[in-house]
Specification:
The complex is a heterodimer of chains A (111) and B (113).
Chain A (H helix, E strand, L loop, with lengths): L3 E4 L2 E5 L4 E7 L7 E6 L6 E6 L5 E4 L2 E6 L4 E6 L8 E9 L2 E5 L3 E6 L1
Parallel strand pairs in A: 2-11
Antiparallel strand pairs in A: 1-3, 3-8, 4-5, 4-9, 6-7, 7-8, 9-10, 9-11
Chain B lengths: L4 E3 L2 E4 L5 E6 L6 E7 L6 E7 L2 E5 L6 E5 L5 E5 L8 E8 L8 E2 L3 E5 L1
Parallel strand pairs in B: 2-11
Antiparallel strand pairs in B: 1-3, 3-8, 4-5, 4-9, 5-6, 7-8, 9-10, 9-11
Classes of the chains: A mainly beta (111), B mainly beta (113).
């Protein structure tokens, strides 16, 4: 069922560094690409999202870069903080139905 | 504004039993989606309900069924439980069918022995 491939599986970054997580999708009908953050014991929470008519979206320290021709998108976390340590999921959907999630990236930010 | 709430938070069942999980959607939201999240995996779409009708279904067998009530709360029912059904079941609500943002609850952790 998975149509979104996410890498890396885990990532360790020093405080203040840049965290980069990549995703690739297959279905060109997808029109919404969110990133979710999940802490242990909690449900996923929307971090930032993009639609395919723009190539980049920035909200604070979080940026999505989107490459429609390559069917790839990525999350960049600038100035990573220990509080950013969590599991991050990329996802894609068409018309908000049947959201397809990547397998997740466990991010650890070391102080 | 009340967020998405799910119950129970944890439960243990044995193989072959049936389970019902409940979800109250966020105020103002009329669409509820259910996801199964196995340990160490991303959520997988089970189905979506919009105004009390099923509005899309993922690759899950018919023993997974649901309901949505007039107040937009929802139930997920799983019959004939199997060991592989052990997972975190997440409910997500959205303002309307077709809008992007899903608001997730904290999930119901089901263990099947």
């Amino acid at each position: 069922q998975q149509q979104v491939k996410q890498s890396p599986q885990s990532l360790i970054v020093q405080k203040g560094g840049i965290s980069i997580i990549n995703c690739a999708y297959e279905n060109t009908a997808f029109d919404y690409f969110p990133w979710y953050q999940q802490f242990p014991g909690k449900g996923p929470a929307l971090l930032i999202a993009i639609r395919p008519d723009v190539s980049e979206k920035k909200e604070g320290r979080f940026t999505i870069s989107f490459n429609k021709s390559a069917k790839q998108f990525s999350l960049h976390i600038m100035d990573s903080q220990p509080g950013d340590s969590a599991t991050y999921f990329c996802a894609a959907s068409y018309n908000n139905n049947d959201m397809r999630f990547g397998a997740g990236t466990r991010l650890t930010v070391k102080p | 504004e009340t967020g998405v709430t799910q119950s129970p938070t944890h439960l243990i069942k044995t193989r072959g039993q049936q389970v019902t999980l409940r979800c109250s959607s966020q105020s103002g939201h009329n669409t509820v989606s259910w996801y199964q999240q196995a340990l160490g995996q991303g959520p997988q779409f089970i189905f979506q309900y919009y105004r009390e009708e099923e509005n899309g279904r993922g690759n899950f067998p018919p023993r997974f069924s649901g309901l949505q009530f007039p107040n937009y709360s929802s139930e997920l029912n799983v019959n004939a439980l199997e060991l592989d059904d052990s997972a975190l079941y997440l409910c997500a609500s959205s303002r309307d069918r077709g809008t992007g943002e899903l608001f997730f609850g904290e999930g119901s952790r089901l263990t099947v022995l």
